[in-house]
Amino acid sequence: MKANYKKIAIGGTFDKLHKGHEALIKTAFEMGDEILIGITSDEFANNKNHIIEPCKSRIRRLKKIINTYDKKYQIKEIYDSMGTADKDPELDAIVVSHETEQSAVYINTVRKETGLNPLDIIVIEWVFADDGVPISSTRIRKGEIDQKGKLL
Question: Residue 29: which of 58, 85, 87, 70 has the closest Cα?
């Protein structure tokens, strides 16, 4: 599905940046004129059950990928699972993975309740490691695979 949206959102922790994250980013930059990237703040990330790289490090690594695209973007630290997607009237769409699709559905529920248009939800396909299991930061953290999905 190729569409052209004025402003499209993506969000995540972007820890252990991997091919799945790259697919999410690529889809957003292919489909939107302007990209809003929500990245979990250190405070929000600390609610996870494992150690997450500092936000500044994650942003620096993220910029190495997004600076290869010639599009306008904004990175915002987010403090909850909605970031600003629930209240930004300029957003047209959101790109998510299968595991975060329900968050986008919830964001649309909140948007409708406050009189905003729902976002088009674009779900990217899984990016698989060499063993046929989806690549994830958790698997990388456990030492099962590397960021490209190669078995360790």
Answer: 70
